[in-house]
């Protein structure tokens, strides 16, 4: 009976010892994990986009917008820009930068146009391109101007300022230019130069 009592006392002492040792061992293991783990470098935080939030709120804008439509006479028009700003208080319409447009007439003739900027009025009846405007017509003419206006309701592109055009016959300079549908009942489209038109004829070699 004495041995049994002694064994019970030993078991009790072992349990009491383990109650102290095991928590200490757990704390030691946790402290080792913290010591061995990589320290956080504040400079390694996720980078944020370099965007002025306040400026975005003051001047909202759209990135890579696209406008597409069909005119009354069946020409398809698509205009893209790298950035556009919607109409705001005190502004008459939308504006865009780095603009590229494509117009395809029903007869399949394609006209490309690029410009530094463009303005679209509130009624969206036409778009005005400004700054290094270049129009490439499928007939072989490249027309350069500082401003051109294209109707979004019918095939009608015009420049009311001087233009320089390089084409199959040579170089043409003129006060104004207009690309529009032919006369009444005509199915074709005309590229017309007006006012002090000068042609430097360059025959093909």
Automatic annotation (TrEMBL):
Record key words, sorted: Membrane, Transmembrane, Transmembrane helix
A Pfam short name: LptC
Residues that span the membrane, as ranges: 16-36
Highest rank taxon of the organism: Bacteria
Name listed for the protein in its UniProt record: LPS export ABC transporter periplasmic protein LptC
Organism name: Fuscovulum ytuae
Lineage, uppermost ranks: Bacteria, Pseudomonadati, Pseudomonadota, Alphaproteobacteria, Rhodobacterales
Gene: lptC
